Amino acid sequence: MVSYMVGTLGFAAENIHMNDCGLDPDVQIEQIEVLLGNKPDVIIVAPCDVNNVSEITDMCSKKDVPVVYIMSEPDEAEEIRWKSEKIRACYAGPDGIRSGSDQGAIIATLHNKGDINEDGVVKYIMLQGDPNDPTGCARSEYSIRSLNENGVKTEMLLLQKADWERKKAKKVISDALEKFGDDAEVIFCGNDEMALGAAEAVEQAGRKCGKDIFIVGAVGSVEAMRAILDGKITGTVFDDYKAQAEWAGNRAASMLDGDDTETVFYTNPTKITAGNAAEMIEYCEK
After folding, report:
1. C-alpha closest to that of 149 among 95, 113, 190
2. Which end of the chain is less enclosed by CB atoms within 10 A, N or C?
3. Domain annotation covers residue 162
């Protein structure tokens, strides 16, 4: 995003300030307070807790600073509020419904549709990052709805949060595989970090992805795509973060010019499997 804003939009690199809150929502609020005290022209935020979006929006609005949210979409009521109260705020990022549907479609197009033991029911584990995140919840719901709409019966063995983290996901899946054994046929993950953690647990348990279990991630990180090529993950959904970064940068620039017309931009998801992972890695690394 920074390279696009500097190279294409003409922002001065020294005027762009980055902060990492370490996924701590309280730290993020404190950082934004400090930033607003420095009178920025615009703020771009990847909220680590969408429950704080309304507070962040009000903080920025009081200082007359436009805010662009990325990655995690605020709820519908908040987006409606932006329009009704004429608040300079917008969102650019993945659509949980579409990316979830694509996760389900990846499994539905397998030769056995994820039904490894051929009993007519796909038994799955669902790993969520944050159960309060609307994008993640929609992804979880529609991954299963997509399977069902493709004629696949499903049964949930476990719904567990892992805070978007690889290490926590590995622990959750290690425990789940010990409990459910071969009954676990598919692991749906809310992001690729959790999918990579699940893959480590699967390998440690002596299971083989693609043979006796399937793993699906989301976001489309290069590391996850390499894991797909290595046979450690079945697939992921690429939420085009290049397009997201460009739109967020463009909206930041246009909001500075007084254009507040667009409030939501969804990236176009792409299903990633072994058939196109190498091509998508090349796209990401350009």
Report:
1. 113
2. C
3. yes
